[in-house]
Amino acid sequence: MCFSATASFSAGIVLTIIGVSSIKKVQHRSQRMFALIPFIFAIQQFSEGFLWLSIPNEKWSYLQTGITYFYLIIAQIIWPVWVPVAILLLEKEKTRKKTQRLLVAIGIAVSLYLTYCLLHFNIRSEIDCYHIAYIQTYPEPFRVMGGLLYIIATILPPFFSHIRRMWWLGVMVLISYIVTTVFYESYLVSVWCFFASVISLSVYLIMSEIRISHREEIYLKKAIEQN
To answer: Which of 6, 46, 80, 150 has most Cβ atoms within 10 angstroms of its Cβ?
Structure first.
């Protein structure tokens, strides 16, 4: 996230509150992964807050490498799989499930490739112009294709969901990605995660809709049984 450690920790606290509210809306175990999205963003923001503290402080410098890898594991390995799987678990329509499974497969491929990169190439983080820059020496030929597949795995799933307002999530993440790419390209990993974490509020709104739909289904079943 850009700006400061204070901003990162503040975002983490807000996201934790949103996460608690989202979890309270869960009525079935298939909804848990989706409801936990704000919590994962919160963990990211807290970790980057500590990164802000460790980079300029010699007493904390020994933590920098570990926190950098921890942050990137969430951003580049967990997210490409978590998002499509979480939305697949919510899906009820067979045709849409096939599409969601394809997106999960793409997410797994991206995650495996980025895992390989994290293990075999040099990575470091530094503060640059009030932002944290993640310096990753990944192979250039695969950077564009890898980025495209990452976008497909993390942004497209909401658009193929049967849930009426799930597209909100996709639109907001897409807009945040475009804004970040245009204005903060050198700090994409950090700043996009900040914008994406802010829009986690849409997760709570979607969970509220799922809860209402679930109640309507129960009411309809009872009405049919009584008749």
So the answer is: 80
Distance CA 44, CA 209 (A): 26
Write the secondary structure of 96-140 as one string of H (helix), E (strand) and C (coil). HHHHHHHHHHHHHHHHHHHHHHHHHCCEEEEEECCEEEEEECCCH
199: closest CA among 157, 155, 164, 150? 155
Distance CA 169, CA 199 (A): 8
Residue with token string 């009820």: 92
Q: Please tell me the pTM assigned to this model.
A: 0.85
Please state the domain extents for the chain.
5-226
Tokens representing residue 106 in the block: 């793409």
Higher-pLDDT residue of 54, 88: 88
From its phi and psi, is residue 130 left (phi > 0), alpha (psi between -120 and 50) or beta? left
The pLDDT of residue 55 is 86
Question: How far is the CA of 71 from the CAs of 138, 144, 178, in angstroms?
Answer: 17, 21, 21
Tokens of 17: 């509150």
The per-residue pLDDT for range 25-46, each reduced to its tens digit, is: 998 899 999 999 999 989 988 9
Of 43, 23, 44, 42, the closest CA to residue 34 belongs to 23
